[in-house]
Amino acid sequence: MQKTGLRGFNGLLVALLVLCAFAGGVVLDKVVLKGRSLWPPITAPSSGDEIQVQYHTLYTRCGDEVIETDSVSRDAIGDYLGAVSTEWQASSRASSGTDSGHHFSRSVDDFCPEHARFRLVTLTGGLVAVYRGKESSQPKLLIRVYRDLPESHLRKTERELLKAGIVLEDEPGLVDAKVAKYLEGIID
């Protein structure tokens, strides 16, 4: 008895799996990573000389600036700088120390991570108010004043908590729903 068709089918299946794995790798590289590596480049041990590379991100909606710093060996700095994304602009900021290092900056039309993830629920002028962030009640960070939630309608424990301020945290797309759920629970 002779088997027919399965050997050819298995070869076709393997070829299809290899093609899918290759296409997935291309999509990951070009779309998700945009040509950047998942891991930092492997470099030979250096002489210990390191150069500071600073990234300054200005978040225009709240005015906050986030600064991140990398230390890169002098031997690897060329490869490192070649891999910096085009969203970053070279900057001429001064730095401390004898080596000026490398500085990159960008502006992002959004709130900084803290103001995107955190909400402060507090009392302002005798009313419940919600601000972006976890500490400040600056007018530019005010999201909403709830005129239908005056301090006088709250239980004593809720008033005391809100005078100190309640900080809620979640993912940027979910934090406002968490605030709404909290506010539903404080109404008598």
Task: Describe the 3D structure.
The chain has helices spanning 6-32, 77-82, 113-117, 156-164, 175-186; strands spanning 50-59, 65-73, 89-91, 102-108, 118-124, 127-132, 142-150, 166-169. A hairpin with a 2-residue loop joins strand 5 (118-124) and strand 6 (127-132). 31% of the residues lie in helices and 29% in strands. The protein contains five helices and eight strands, in the order αββαββαβββαβα. The strands form two sheets. The protein has a four-stranded mixed beta sheet with strand order 2-1-4-3, with no helix packed on it. Strands 7-6-5-8 form a four-stranded antiparallel beta sheet. By secondary structure, it is an alpha+beta fold.
Strand and helix layout:
Elements: H1 6-32, E1 50-59, E2 65-73, H2 77-82, E3 89-91, E4 102-108, H3 113-117, E5 118-124, E6 127-132, E7 142-150, H4 156-164, E8 166-169, H5 175-186
Parallel strand pairs: 1-4
Antiparallel strand pairs: 1-2, 3-4, 5-6, 5-8, 6-7
Briefly, what is this?
With 188 residues, the chain is an alpha+beta fold. The chain has helices at residues 6-32, 77-82, 113-117, 156-164, 175-186, and strands at 50-59, 65-73, 89-91, 102-108, 118-124, 127-132, 142-150, 166-169. Mean pLDDT is 80; it is low at 1-6 and 42-47.
